[in-house]
Amino acid sequence: DIVMTQSPDSLAVSLGERATIQCKSSQSVLYSSDNKNYLAWYQHKPGQPPKLLISWASTRESGVPDRFTGSGSGTDFTLTISSLQAEDVAIYYCQQYYFTLRTFGQGTKVEI
Amino acid sequence: EVHLVESGGGLVQPGGSLRLTCTTSGFTFGNYWMHWVRQVPGTGLVWVSRIKNDGNTTSYAESVKGRFIVSRDNAKNTLYLEMNSLRADDTAVYYCARVGIDYSYDYWGPGTQVTVSS
Question: β-strands B105-108, A36-37: how paired?
């Protein structure tokens, strides 16, 4: 199985400051036929279902604030929140959808 | 508006069975792959199962293979997860999720709690 490893497990960031989350996959999720990275980022708040933020490693979903940016390729990916807001407190997960057995990172808890 | 709502969770004894239902609306259900994902309390998200839009292809995580069965009724816009031989480590919140055109999960249900305990 492909293993997704996020770092750090948690981080505390001041309001308005930058938060950076890393995600590393044990195998490349870059599909050569379409040159796309099969990697998504989700935001999960308590009592709510996860919310899709970014697909294809860097494509922001409609309605997602532009302070959320995804980057990276192959096996190394980053989610950046450029200016943390109070409503961004959540757990963030990366997920690969390159393989049938989709796997998530262990999650990164972002706090103020 | 797209809606997914899970039901059927609850408390069950080890070795017991439950059937989860994901009722959907607001989209053409028969056009989309659907997945089940679970979250054990205090831990992360884990993929459980998937089913093709026509119901002819299914896949399972190793931990549930042979015990869980995913199915769908496109006429009723409904997804199912039959869970048998339940174990304590199946205790989790179970989510159904729609696979969007970009292959990620674009819509999720609110989840249903399954607790396996004697």
Answer: unpaired
Record: contact B44-A56, CB cut-off 8 A: no
Match 């992360």 to its residue by tokens.
B44
pLDDT digits (tens, 9 = 90+) for B47-103: 999 999 999 999 999 999 999 999 999 999 999 999 999 999 999 999 999 999 989
The nearest alpha carbon in chain A to B49 belongs to A101
Instruction: State the nearest Cα–Cα gap between B109 and chain A, in angstroms.
Output: 6
d(CA A15, CA A33): 41
Q: What is the DSSP string of B28-68?
A: -GGGS-EEEEEE-TTS-EEEEEEE-TTS--EEE-TTTTTTE
Residue A45's closest chain B neighbor by CA?
Answer: B110
Chain A CB contacts of B95 below 8 Å: 49-50
Q: What is the pLDDT of residues B1-54, one digit of tens each?
A: 999 999 999 999 999 999 999 999 999 999 999 999 999 878 889 999 999 999
The answer, for B33 touching chain A at a CB cutoff of 8 Å, is no
